[in-house]
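Its record is quoted verbatim for completeness.
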Amino acid sequence: MAAGARAGCRRCRALERDKRRLERKLARLARENQRLQHALEHAQRAARRQAAPFSRGRPQRQPRPPGRRPGAAYGPRAHRPVPTHVDETIEVPLPRACPACGGAVARERVAAQYQTDIPPVRPHVTLFRVQLGRCLGCGKPLRGRHPRQTSPALGAAAPHLGPRAVALAADLNKRLGLSYGKLVALYRVAFGLPVSRGGVCLALGRLARAAEPTYRGLIEHVRQAPVVAPDETGWNVAGTLRWLWVFATAEVTVYAIQPGRGFEQAAAILSAEFAGVLERDGWAPYRRFTQAEHQSCLAHLLRRCHELLEDAARGQARFPHAVRRILRGALDLRERRAAAELSSHGLAVARGRLEARLDRVLAGRITHPPNRRFAQHLARERPALFTFLRRDDVEATNWRAEQAIRPAVVTRKVWGGNRSWAGARTQQILATVLRTCHQQGRDALALFAEMLYRGEPSSLVPAILGRARSP
């Protein structure tokens, strides 16, 4: 009886300990649940509003003053340069007498001040008196054509926008994101040029047809490039979610609006046999380019480490800390290589040590589910993590694609996308030519004007890439 009572007491004490342990665990889970609910509510509110003028959080008690910091790291002190030419000179004499005391005034020196302004703009209208006739032999109707004509249209369609006006509209709309309505207002106020939204839309479609051979030529250039950075983002076409792809190289950027974001859409631009290097994020379809080398974006991986560390509880931060140290070590090696502090052999040895460290970290026992998912992703991306340490022409991140896609994201926020696939086609062609001209330091407006002057569309890729970059 006594032994049974003692055993019962031990069982009761054990159950009491288990009860207290479960109560503590329940309280901890309740606190974690409350924290996650607050975080979810904050994220949902942030998703339903624009970034400004709302604050991103509580203001700091002692915010840093705006502007650049004084000291050696201030950077170059820029100012408006003196104009290279002067159109008008105005003499500004001294007052006859001092306005304070009425005394005489003596001139000491003359100082120069420059004022650069926009002159009043008056549209330049050209009248083409087109001669019409007929062949006396076969009776075929004939008409004259001047090299400065951009369209053969006559009759009701005879008045149309000139090449510079159309090219500027393309730049304002496709590169800077100005809507058709604001573009119409700008042309009326700044240039005294009456245009309509429909007229601008039709003119840009005509320009896109003239630029299509150049667009195809730039796609071929991307397919032959040694290194390409791809990326994609959502894009509306006719009210339906589609995808805007970007393929950026050091010389060329190509945009393509596609119905999906899979391997087939990427291969439609790059080709399935692409054999260069892809600087890309961890999106799975990119791994299907089996003939290409790959570089996974380290910025995305470091960002994921930061997110895991923010949410990590006790014992859950060791794995993301270790991965972050390895990735930062790889970036430090890149900087040392750029500074010529490492020989080729030294770089190879240091890279091998980093790879071995990463393999040991991935081979360890990882129990936290988010960490385990991240480890599985790193294992899949393992061959693509340190390509940039083996090749000097490969970047550690996909920054080229991110920078190229950013203007499109701003444009999407302004007017949403395209109302039709014809508009999407115009968008991708003109945005490609504009971005590539910007990379090459070319005058896109002059290039568009040349496209419109030509009777038959033809590729102007050599004109974009063939000459030396302007200073």
Observations:
- The chain has a mean pLDDT of 89.
- The CA atoms of residues 156 and 327 lie 65 Å apart.
